[in-house]
Amino acid sequence: MTLKLQADYNRAFKAADIRGIYPTEIDDELVYFIGRAFVEEFGYKRLVVARDMRIHSDGLYEAFVKGATDSGASIVDVGMVHSPALYYASGTLDLPGVMITASHSPKDYHGLKLVHAQAIPLTEKTGLNKIRRRIERGQFIDAKKRGRITKKNVLKGYQKFVLKGFKAKQVAGMKIACDAGNGMAGVLLPLLQEKLPAKFDVMFGKLDGRFPNRDSDPTLSKNQRQLKDRLKKKKYDFGISFDGDGDRIAFLDETGKYVNSADIGALIAGRLLAKEPKAKLGYTMLTSRSYEEAIKADGGKPVIMRVGHAFIKDSMRKKDVIFACEHSGHFYFKDYFFTDSVTLTLLAVMEAYAEAKAEGKTFGQMVKPCQKYKQTEDVIVLVKDKKLALAKTEKFITTKLKPKSIKRFDGLVVDCGDVWGGVKVSVTEYALKVMFESANKKLAKETQDKIVAYIKSIANATK
Description:
37% of the residues lie in helices and 22% in strands. The strands form 4 sheets. Strands 1, 2, 3, 4, 5, 6 and 7 form a 7-stranded mixed sheet that branches. Strands 18, 19, 20, 21, 22 and 23 form a 6-stranded antiparallel sheet that branches. The chain folds into 4 domains: 9-153, Alpha-D-Glucose-1,6-Bisphosphate, subunit A, domain 3 (Alpha-D-Glucose-1,6-Bisphosphate, Chain A, domain 3, 3-Layer(aba) Sandwich), CATH 3.40.120.10; 158-259, Alpha-D-Glucose-1,6-Bisphosphate, Chain A, domain 3 (3-Layer(aba) Sandwich); 270-286 and 293-337, Alpha-D-Glucose-1,6-Bisphosphate, Chain A, domain 3 (3-Layer(aba) Sandwich), CATH 3.40.120; 374-457, TATA-Binding Protein (2-Layer Sandwich), CATH 3.30.310.50. The protein is of the alpha/beta class. Strand 11 and strand 12 (258-259) form a beta hairpin.
C-alpha cells in the first residue's frame, strides 16, 4: 500500500537522525510508521525507548511505541532522561533503541535518534534510508502477537557507571554555577549532586519544553547571558550550561567568559594521552585548530571526522579513536560506547581543576594555555539548494578571497594564512554553516561576514 502521510516527512529524514518542525515535517502518524519500520526492517524483538521534556514528546512516545508493538516488538521504557542515559541503556542492555528528542534545535522542532544495540547510531547510509523507503512502500506486516511494555529505571545504574573510579573527595568544596536550560540536565544534575561533595547551583532546572528562559544551544553567547550574570555576581569556580536533551555542555570561567569547546577538549586530550601515549583523538573541520595542535604536542594522532554525532561515533569505532571533540559542545569517549557524555566531560574537567586549584590557579588560568586562537560563533544561512549554494560559495572564496588552500572535506576547509575555517552543509537544516578563526578575532569575523553576505545573496538560487 502507499501511505499518504500528513507530514512533509522527506525534510525530517536527515543524514544523521530524524528531525523536523512539528507537525508539518514530523508528526505522530509519521513516528508511528517509523516505529513499525525500525522493528520490521531489522527484525528487532525488543527495544529501549526514552524521551526528553519537549511539548510533544509524550505523544511521539505513544506513537512510536504503538508502531513498534504493533509490529511485534516489546518495549523497555526508561522514561524521561537525557540522551547519554539512552546510550547507556542501549550499551548495557545490549538493545537497539530510540531517543525521542530534537536535541538543541528550537522548541518547534522534534525528532528521533535511533540506535542499534551498543548505541551504534543509524545514519542515512546505515538504516535511516531503509526506514524511509519501507514507509514509502507501506511495507508492513501484521504481527501475530503485539509486543509488551515494561518500565525500567536506569538512572541509578547510570550514576554508578559514570562515577566508577572517580575520587569524589577531590572536588569537595567546589562551587559550580549550572544552567540546565529547562532541559534534561534538570534530571542529570541531581544525580551528580547526590554523590559528589561539590555544590551545583542550578538555574532553570524545571523541565519545560517551551524553553521559557533561553533557547536550547548553550554555546551561543545570547543563551549564556543569564549564566554570565550569575558568575559575575557570586563567587563560583566556573559555570556550565546544557542543551535540551543534555548531550552538549558549555563551560564558562569564573568571570563568565565562554571557554571554547576545543580548549576544553585540549585539556582532556592531554590527560588522556598521559595515560595512553600515541592514541588517536578525533576532531572536525569546525573544531578550533588549538585542539589539533594540542594533540600533536602531547604525542597523539589527530583524526579528522565528518561533523555530526552519528558520523563521529561511526568513525571512532572504525578507527579506534579514544576521544573526540566537536565545536558544538559534544565530547565523545570510547569508554562510553563511543558516544557523547556530558558527565564524563564534566568529571574530567573537575578533576583537572581540582589539581589546578590546589596550585592556586583559577579556572581561567587553568585553560589559558589552551586558548591560542579566537573563533567566531557559527552562522547558519538558510538556502534553497544546499549543494548549489556550496558550489557557488567555493567559487566566490576562490576568486575573491584567494586562499592559500581550499579543500573539500565535509564542506569547504579554507586556509587564508592568518585566517582559516570552514563552510559546510548543515546536517539538520536546509542551510550552510560558516565558522572562521584566527589569532585576531577581528580578521576572523571580517572573513566570516564576507562569506555570509555572499551566501545570503544567492540563498534562493536554484541553478
